Amino acid sequence: MTGMPPSCKDALIATNKAMLATEDVLDQGHIPACIARQVQQFKYDWQGMEQGVSQAISGFVNGNNIDLYRQGMVKFAEIAQYVQPDMDRITAAEKTCPKTIP
Question: What are the helix and strand counts (H, E) for the chain?
Fold first, then answer.
């Protein structure tokens, strides 16, 4: 495929920036010990998805390499299927967190 649409590249770059910003928020926030393991798994999966987006972007900057683009998008999609289960585990673990008294 030659001449991959620039709008796809722009959308991927915007997505990548948002994913990196989310990563920064996760890294700066205080994560309670009762959900730390589950959040760490979510962060690991999130980073893998971001790496997939970065790889797809590199397909554009490396001479419109469709194979590199596809590999990145496949990586993103394969890991994205774990986000909802990650969130479900965080929600379940959150129920075990000690309650604070206002």
Answer: 4, 0
